[in-house]
Structures are given as C-alpha cells and as structure tokens.
C-alpha cells in the first residue's frame, strides 16, 4: 500500500537545518513529498498500474538520479506546505510551473500539461448554474452568489488570479473548507456529490477520476471564464528556503534527468495521457509542443501507444 512507503522521515530531526549557506556542500538526500490526494497520488492497482498523475514521474526520477538518497514522505497537504515553508530539504512533484522562483519554491523545467481549472458541480446543478452565470462560468459572479455553497480542501491553491478572486468574495469567508488529512480530494467530492456543497474548483480530470473510479458518478465540470488558457504547465518545486542552496542543486539533477530520460519515456507519457486525455483531448498536442519540442532529443514524438 502507498501509505506504507513512508519511512523514518516523519521524524523532523531527519531534516537538516543550518544557519549558513554552503554552496560547495553536495546534497545527499531528496525527500519527495506527496499527499494522499487522488488522482495525483494513489495506490497502484489493476485500474491504475502506473499510480497517480505524479507517481510515475517521481519513480522515474528516483531511478534515474542514482547518486543521492531518495525518500518518499506521505503527509497531508497542510504538512507539505509546512515542510516547504520551513525550508526542509524537500521537493514536491505536483506544482504549477512558474518561470521564476517565489519565496517558497524554485521550479523545474515544465513536466506536463494540465487542462485549465474548472468548476466542478453535480449534474443536477450544472445547467442551473450555467443559466445564472454563463458558460463558461463567470467565476467572480458565481462566488458572489450566496445561493450556492462553495467548498474546497483547506490547503488547496489555484492560479494567482483564481486565488485572488476566491479570497476577495464574501462567499469565501463562508466557504465550507475540508480539513480532512485522509484523501483530501475525495472528502470534497463526497460532500459535493451528496449535496452538502454546490460546487468546488479543480481540474476537470479530478472529476473524471471520481466518476470513473468511485461511487460519486454525478460530478461534471464546467469551464471558467477567468481561466481561458489552453493549458497549465506542471512542474516540480523544491524548497527555496532549504539550506546550502539545496533547491538549485536538487533541480540541477532533476532537470538533467527530465531532459535525458523521463519526459521522453513512453511509460511516463502514457501515465499522463491515462489521467488527462479524457477531459483534455488536446493533451498530446500540447505535450508535444510545450514539453517535447523544448527538450532533447528533438525527434521524439508522441504516438498513440495504448495505456
């Protein structure tokens, strides 16, 4: 079981903290953070032999980067934020790519292409919400409509624009936040499916996962007007506050492995297609354009290999 992968790293003493920078000190270990949030991280089974969206990526990097120790640590999303903010020697494989580092994360080269965020609601409410707030939905209007109950996982973050819209509406202060540390994404979807929430915001493939692999069959996604991008770039983020220039050193190894092996691997590409293509039929086009065409070897092309 995935949860049993957690090793001794729960003990915070296993992380190193120093009060000074040592740019010559090589990194000895990368701790890979993950949460139990399907479909990003899930147990392998006959329905998902490659694991979740980010699992094959992590596994191939661990196999390819063979000169450091690797540990996978499963923690709630809130704890992931804590490790990153406190500057532990950690990396997280499921973040939105940014061109420059922020005060928490330094980013790898893009690793995948996600569809834009959407509103997830029920089949029963979708037409009603669209009639009131458009299709694509004007998110600022929906979030200001107190007739509907908005909910999300407490630690869930989106794009800067969507985060700002959520935080600046009165509905957010009344939002139903899920603090579950066990299967955070399912906790929100279960409440939505059962009518305790009216809508949430997330990637459309999250809805696909629960429709296809759970009893929550009444979930649908509706596009958001404020997120008109054709795709979202994914990346790996490493803790910029970690000592001894850890993030730069770790990402140097990670980016070399991505370009040399992982991003061109049929197993990795098929794992992405398996999860993303149902609600993102242009996945292969944008993966070729945004990922493969910017790395070497340039002659690699996506083929329609069965998953």
Description:
- This protein is an alpha/beta fold and 307 residues long.
- It has helices spanning 55-64, 77-85, 123-133, 139-143, 160-167, 170-173, 184-193, 204-213, 246-260, 266-276, 283-290; strands spanning 29-34, 69-74, 90-96, 105-107, 112-114, 118-122, 151-153, 176-178, 199-202, 219-223, 232-239.
- The strands form 3 sheets. Strands 1, 2, 3, 4, 5 and 11 form a 6-stranded mixed beta sheet that branches.
- Strand 1, helix 1 and strand 2 (69-74) form a beta-alpha-beta unit.
- The chain is globular, with a radius of gyration of 19 Å.
- The two termini are 22 Å apart.
- It comes from Pseudoalteromonas undina.
Helix and strand topology:
Elements: E1 29-34, H1 55-64, E2 69-74, H2 77-85, E3 90-96, E4 105-107, E5 112-114, E6 118-122, H3 123-133, H4 139-143, E7 151-153, H5 160-167, H6 170-173, E8 176-178, H7 184-193, E9 199-202, H8 204-213, E10 219-223, E11 232-239, H9 246-260, H10 266-276, H11 283-290
Parallel strand pairs: 1-2, 1-3, 7-8
Antiparallel strand pairs: 3-11, 4-11, 5-11, 6-9, 6-10
């Amino acid at each position: 079981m995935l949860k049993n992968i957690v090793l001794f790293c729960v003990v915070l003493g296993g992380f190193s903290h120093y009060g000074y920078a040592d740019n010559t000190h090589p990194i000895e270990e990368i701790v890979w953070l993950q949460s139990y949030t399907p479909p990003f991280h899930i147990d392998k089974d006959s329905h998902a032999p490659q694991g979740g969206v980010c699992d094959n990526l992590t596994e191939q990097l661990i196999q390819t980067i063979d000169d450091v120790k690797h540990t996978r640590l499963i923690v709630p999303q809130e704890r992931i934020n804590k490790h990153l903010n406190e500057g532990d020697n950690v990396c997280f494989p499921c973040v939105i790519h940014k061109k420059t580092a922020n005060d928490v994360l330094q980013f790898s080269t893009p690793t995948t292409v996600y569809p834009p965020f959407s509103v997830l609601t029920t089949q029963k409410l979708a037409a009603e919400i669209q009639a009131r707030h458009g299709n694509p939905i004007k998110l600022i209007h929906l979030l200001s409509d107190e007739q509907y109950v908005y909910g999300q996982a407490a630690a869930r973050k989106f794009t800067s624009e969507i985060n700002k819209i959520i935080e600046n509406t009165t509905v957010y202060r009344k939002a139903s936040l899920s603090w579950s540390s066990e299967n955070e994404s399912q906790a929100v979807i279960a409440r939505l499916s059962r009518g305790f929430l009216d809508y949430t915001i997330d990637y459309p493939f999250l809805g696909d996962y629960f429709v296809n692999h759970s009893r929550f069959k009444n979930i649908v996604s509706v596009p958001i007007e404020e997120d008109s991008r054709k795709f979202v770039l994914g990346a790996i983020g490493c803790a910029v506050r970690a000592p001894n220039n850890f993030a730069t050193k770790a990402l140097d190894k990670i980016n070399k492995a991505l370009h040399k092996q992982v991003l061109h691997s049929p197993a990795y590409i098929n794992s992405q297609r398996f999860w993303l293509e149902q609600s993102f039929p242009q996945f292969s086009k944008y993966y070729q354009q945004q990922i493969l065409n910017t790395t070497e070897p340039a002659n690699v092309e996506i083929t329609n290999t069965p998953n």
